[in-house]
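Worked example 2:
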Amino acid sequence: MGSAISRVLAEHEVVALTSARSALCRISAGESFDVILCDVMMPDFSGMDLYEGIARQAPELLDRLVFMTGGAYTQDAINFLDRVPNARLEKPILPRALHDAMASILPLGTAGAR
């Protein structure tokens, strides 16, 4: 999915990672991102875990987090999505929806944002 998103967002600098844990490590090390796209459900370290980690380590990035979901299949995921205000994209994600989500977070004129 990362390569498909990278293609759709070709006008942006995209960093595609396959692990929410590695994303949190990069954020903890001081990297900042204009938009963070993350699946809700992942093995080992979920999007919910990433949200909690960002809340502790870089809370200023929380409003930049957009969740991608094919559906919340556990009660924990349902409760989490009901609780957090973050935008979410339902799979399959249409290019227009992805661009709209980016535009809702990025200031105008930031096509090269990361």
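The chain has a mean pLDDT of 90. Strands lie at 36-39, 65-69, 88-90.
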